[in-house]
Amino acid sequence: MRINKISFKRKSEPDIALRTFAFATNFNYIYSVKNATGKSTFMRLLLYSLGFSIPNTRKVSFEEFTVEIEIEHKGVTFTVKRESRKIWVNGSEMILPSDTHIAHSIIFDEDSFDLIDNLLGAIYIDQDRGWTLLNRGTQIGKIRFYIEEFLHGLKGKDCDIEIKVALRKLDDELERYRQMKAVAEYKEQAIEATGEMNLDKGEVAFDTHTEELQSGRRELQYEKQSIEKKIRFLERTIADDKKFVEWLESHNIIVRGTNGELIPVTHDTIENYSDNTELNKIEVRREQIALRKVTEAIAAIDEEINSQPMFLGGETILQTFERRIADVPVDFTAVENTIKKLTKEQMRLREILRESARTQNIWAGKLNEYILAYAKELSIDEYLDTGDYFLFKDIKSISGAIYHKMVFIFRISYNRVLSEKLGYKVPFFIDSPNGREVEKSAVDAMIAILERDFSETQIFIASIFNFIKQTANNKKIVMDGRLFNIVTGQKSIFDLLDGGYDSPTDDGD
What is the pTM assigned to this prediction? Predict the structure, then answer.
């Protein structure tokens, strides 16, 4: 699988041509001599264009862009286009996140939900949390990775569905209880700090005009969410109807009329199809107008709230928060006991999944083999647990530099077995392989492994280290901090893309 090129532009730049970057077949170094120049943003944009739920960076909102990528896969070239929640795979429109599984099953040619749900952990190591994710946890965009589910997907079937659903529900519930515990702890600290809190206010009333505004804002926010939900439903209905009719047309279905004539089923011959579609579009427009009015009302309230002084009625914002939190009854002991009970159940369910994932699974053996081999090569095999290495959990016993190498060998092993399972080389994205405690020699050793064992894999690396080797299969894309700037009449980096800069063998300096 190869990403041949990416093209993008801001929606606010309708007269500006798409900005295009072509990629090499092996290494693509997204490089700059210093940080904060757009390397991670460019890397995230690639994943965003593939339909992943990728968060914006501090300066760039991906929803402002129209993004297209050209993919070559098993001898076939197709395009993927994305605009906010809409994604088109070879012209077929889908709505994210509800159609994420469908989009990824087409792009990656795989129908196992277990693999699709855990794809990102096997193809991307991100700068923020990716270099801490070993075999389970949350990475960028709150996308989770579970080694048990990944192994189930490799095994070839989606099994233990009930347990997985129960475990995910349990994980979410535990997270909420932990947040509740944090609130209870803060409440206790606030009581100790202030000496007393008004724990029995009696009848609820608005103490300030700001509270009244905030109450009104909450009601408008609920109304806004309801309208947005209705718009999503209508847009999904229009898209689904269109796809269904296209499916009917593609199968050349013919029906017999009342007079015996043969009538092909098309969007023109289906009774009331066009009328219903137009009615739905009108309803979408009507709801969009209502949404705009509610949004403007919320903005007006926000403006009035922001214009209020920090001190209202002799009370600071912190004092207001602590007074309100005092009204939240939280039994700290009960919450703590519930967390212990849920944690115990969580461990029990995970053990069931682990056992199911590694039993009669050739991919578990391959994964162990690769992890051990790479650990020996990087001289960290002594830190691996005995048994199934991919279940390593003794994280606290090793240093940051060792753990950095550990994450690297685990993730490249995931990518390697995934590629073998799918029957093609899956691209690999690595953001900032150089950690704070990692020496350049260690990074060079990692790159050497990639050059040797992943020579047929398309790899994207964002770094301030200059790893580039001049070959026809490698390319360096230099970031200078202006990549995502709106063109304002001054020359931008895209005025320099005259062929020489975009050459796979040009270092771009």
Answer: 0.65
